Amino acid sequence: MLEASAFIQAYWWIGAAGLVAFIVFWTTYTRTPSGRLWWDGTRLKIPMLGETLLKAETARFARAMADAGGQHRAAGAIHRHRRRHA
Predict the structure, then answer these.
(1) pTM for this structure?
(2) Is residue 63 in some structural domain?
(3) Predicted pLDDT of residue 68
């Protein structure tokens, strides 16, 4: 146990450098199209978390489409109103 502690005290910087390198690699990879596709697919396969993420993304998509449709309808109503009262 003492030898393990001495090793960690002497070489902690290797672990810190490895962690920084991993974070840089992970961030860079998941910003590429193939990395993003892989990570999104992997997250959806995680038990319980995947189903929750899928539902959240579906709700976000539905809200965005509802907002887009609502703006389109509102613009049409304004246009019809202007034609009637011009």
Answers:
(1) 0.58
(2) yes
(3) 78
Q: Is 27 domain-assigned?
A: no
**Does residue 48 belong to any structural domain of this protein?**
yes
pLDDT value of residue 74: 55
Q: List alpha helices for 31-48, DSSP H.
A: 33-44
Cβ contacts of residue 10 below 8 Å, gap of 6+?
A: none
Number of domains in the chain: 1
Residues of the chain falling short of pLDDT 50: none
The answer to whether the CB of 44 falls within 8 A of the CB of 34 is no
Dump pLDDT digits (tens) for 16-29.
999 999 999 999 99
| Residue 77 covered by a domain | yes
- Report how far residue 83's alpha carbon sits from residue 79's, in angstroms, rounded to the nearest whole number: 6
Instruction: Dig out the tokens for 29 from the structure.
Output: 């990879």
Range of the domain at 84: 33-86
